[in-house]
Amino acid sequence: MPSYREFYRRSIDDREGFWREQAALIEWQQPFERVCDYDRPPFVKWFVGGTTNLCHNAVDRHLAERAQQNALIWVSTEVEQERVYSFAALHAEVQRMAAVLLSAGVKQGDRVLLYMPMIPEAAFAMLACARIGAIHSVVFGGFASVSLASRIDDAQPVLVISADAGSRGGKVMAYKPLLDEAIRLAQHQPAKVLMVDRGLSAFERVAGRDLDYAAMREQHLDAQVPCTWVESNHPSYTLYTSGTTGKPKGVQRDTGGYAVALAASMTQIFDGRPGETYFSTSDIGWVVGHSYIVYGPLLAGMATIMYEGLPIRPDGGIWWKLVEQYRVSVMFSAPTAVRVLKKQDPALLSKYDLSSLKRLFLAGEPLDEPTAQWIAKGLGKPIVDNYWQTETGWPILGIANGVEPAPSKWGSPGVPMVGYDVRLIDETTGAELTGAHQKGVVAIEGPLPPGCMQTVWRDDERFVKTYWSTIPGRQIYSTFDWGIRDEDGYFFILGRTDDVINVAGHRLGTREIEESIASHPNVAEVAVVGVADPLKGQVAMAFAVLKDASAAADPTAALKLEGEIMKRVDETLGAVGRPARVRFVSVLPKTRSGKLLRRAIQAVCERRDPGDLTTIEDPSALQQIRDLVNAG
Ligand code: ATP
Ligand code: MG
């Protein structure tokens, strides 16, 4: 077995040979003529001339060996339902959906926008689009009309698929009025709207435009819709980034490269094997949902769990109950979700039989060591951090499986995954930082490996300008994250480049201060931002959510706790990192995907307009901070 270092090296030094081998993980209709076309940097084409189909590889190809095996397991604690589809049943449902799409006039290359809750029909629709060569664009079901309208205008779909309602914490959230309003606001008008009626919320139908899925499905029960073979570089979908730092970007993904990269990641990173069960707690509205609820597990011949519900309802043990019930072997979640569980009874982590579970993967935000230790100890399982972006579609940094393992290090998402030529760059000079523990921008030398974004949807110029033109003197992909690399080649992500705090000439990542504060036993989560200061340039401000809020119930107790926390920062980072204030709030402002909106907190602290807040989860969280700032 080669060491991971050698395996990885080959993926960079013999790019063509390496990916040619990986390409055999999926089935091709026509073989490709060229592995990698990088004639027009930074645009890259993978597996040029090859034809394939994502749905074929995710569903049809498994029928011969595993038709009766579980493929899609849907569990809803919102409506108290479970539905299990074998690969054969999934195949039938996807063909019905595909037939409905065709009869609604959808053609190859057309966009189909999904605005749906976590129901099986959403997965059928994604796979059906892939089947007929249509491009799906999933918009997170929690977005309101304005966000949805802007995405309708950008994607210009011929069809929108939606449902009457979603449900969250037992509360029905009607989707249809939001959708109708969004279409009213949008310039672009989709010709048809396909409605899945769950019977949760009565809605009005627009005559001539709105179609009923159940009725149309009835007409296509025996549908046989063959896969449309598309060239490897045919776009499979577009998807918007989380909008943490501003206007979301429409990421465009190819077909062949994505299928190969996901299939490779399933064995090389996740150790997911055919016949096992994968459980990702994300939402189909995010990239993790695309790659690791729908496509990745199915490509690998695994069953995948699609869960509609909260992690703490009926209680904080629900996920682990599902792990026991379905013998989950690989699980994927986010630090933000673990921080939610941290406020629950830890006994719930050991109540169920977790013997099937190999590892828990976490991504999406920096994973602080206290949170990682807490969940690792509670579950008695290895926790694997991994770092990536909507743009890349699969992990940039992680811990590889199978090859002589590089052990994980607390606080680090690991080392570069195959195909990613990761560099650290000094953002002002553009010079490459090769020494250990130097801080710089995490960048990727082109070409990006298979599976990454092709371009910004309908905007090549924005792709080049946004991602490839920010480092002085060279064309290299910027992640806009800031990090260091240690002497063993492990990366540590310190925060986003615009979150770096400059205190009296010392540059600190918000992450470093947050980590130090989070090590206080009563801190559940914390956000640190840099706030303009006439004397020091910037000072750090911290907003913390406590596990036990009563500890800061009165002003004296709060001051005492604040002092304790500052002392901790002094001890771990030194006085430069000490925040000017540590304030206590009941909830932090986050995006719908659970990421801290530091940009908005900073603006409020500096009494500026927080800007585009369309992706915020709970506006009252920002109001709490505003009240604290105004009270002084
Ligand atoms: P936008 O680009 O619209 O501002 P976003 O960057 O939050 O939104 P995503 O693509 O969902 O959108 O998130 C990717 C970002 O999440 C990364 O660039 C990084 O900042 C952060 N991230 C993801 N995984 C990790 C991790 N394991 N450790 C640290 N940060 C992470
Ligand atoms: Mg981003």
TrEMBL record:
Gene source species: Pseudaquabacterium terrae
Keyword Zinc attributed: no
UniProt lineage: Bacteria, Pseudomonadati, Pseudomonadota, Betaproteobacteria, Burkholderiales
EC number: 6.2.1.17
Name by which UniProt lists this protein: Propionate--CoA ligase
Coiled coil: none
A Pfam entry, by short name: ACAS_N
Keyword annotations from UniProtKB, A to Z: Ligase
Family: Belongs to the ATP-dependent AMP-binding enzyme family.
Sequence ranges assigned to domain Acetyl-coenzyme A synthetase N-terminal in this UniProt record: 4-58
